[in-house]
Amino acid sequence: MIVSRRTFLTVSGGLALGASLPAAPAWAQQKNIRHFWWGNPERDRRTFAYIDWFQQAHPDIAVSGETIGWGDYWAKMATQTAGRNMADIVQMPYIYLHEYVQRGALVPLDDYLGNGFDVSFYDEGALDSGMVDGMLYGINIGATSQVIPYNQRVFDEAGVAFDRFGWTTDTFADACQKITDATGGAVTGSEDLSLYIENFEVWGRENGHDLYSKDGELQVTAEDVGSYWRFWTDMRKAGIIEGPDATVRVDKPMSDLGIVSGTTATTFRYANQAVAVQSLMQDPVGLAMVPRRAGMAYGQYILPSMYLSISRDAENIDAVLAYINDWVSSPDAIQVLGIDRGIPPSAMGRDALMPVLSDTEAKVVDYYAGIQGKVGPVPNPAPKGVGEVRDSFMRTGTDVVLGYVSPEDGAARFVEDATAILERARM
């Protein structure tokens, strides 16, 4: 279900920041724009607060905010794209930006730089990843990296001490064993990450393979996939990670994660999502890098957590530009939005946040500083068809988790399927 501002304030009891601000008079709201994003409770709260703030600053613009979970977002986005009724402003991740540009769903922003919104204060190179074929299609609104959130209390009580910036898959497996033993199995060491292609991407890059080549072909091998699924299969058989029933619930809401419900001690996320995870928990959340296989290359990387893009269906361009400009350039707006979408890609934005960071947000900033020098380069752009490839990974991985196929045979099937998907997408 898409959640609108009205619905959000009803179910949240009006907890959004700035929700008590007086609405602009109806007669002043002459321009209407829509913003559509995938969200979580913390992100939705802050985004609707920004919308309130923006409408007070621009009484002639009415903003309709629409939010939905990650998995449903792409189904709805595909429907809106096909029906030519996309929201004016859409949230885009790095992995899908190229695909939606190729679909003709987004408009280039180059002509609006300095002529609608100002990003001249951005860090050097901060806009580069939002470019496709030499043109800018996405405004980077935050930097992030992969992370393993962990329950600090559970780790401490189990006597697990580790280097969160340097642990290995062996260290990780040992931690999972200690936690499962210490809790009598009430809490296992980790969520089973077999179906997380985002976590697998780090595994493949450790072996020098991006998910995709520069030409848009599958670059990871059956050996990469098979060894990844074998690792998690062995952990599952040892009983030190969650069981299959929980694992095969793909793209479940954050509130259903094992670390939130208290059944597992770790999960996989992106660093900017740590604030949302902590908001759903009582125990303190720690942040660690994805465990690396000993002697392998660094597979993690720093990426834009997401972009703001303008859809080809946008009509009130001046109002859309004002919305984006205030989002990235107003210190007050940046404070309202926080770091749920990542660390601002400008010194001005980071300076604006420092006085108002929560303890969890400060942990994210500390984590971001700690991974510098321990990450690899940004991967090759994702080609058209990545959504289907992701679905194939989860579908075949489910068969592996349920024991219908071996990790190695499942890997061969996935590589064959993914290769065919990408070939069709290039036609």
From TrEMBL:
The keyword Iron-sulfur does not apply. Transmembrane segments: none annotated. The keyword 4Fe-4S does not apply. Residues 1-28 form the signal peptide. It is found in: Periplasm. It holds the Pfam family SBP_bac_8. Its main location: periplasm. InterPro entries: Bact_solute-bd_prot1, SBP, TAT_signal. One of its GO terms (cellular component) is periplasmic space. Keywords: Periplasm, Signal. PANTHER family: ABC TRANSPORTER SUBSTRATE-BINDING PROTEIN YESO-RELATED, ARABINOSE-BINDING PROTEIN-RELATED. Belongs to the bacterial solute-binding protein 1 family. This is Extracellular solute-binding protein. It comes from Martelella lutilitoris.
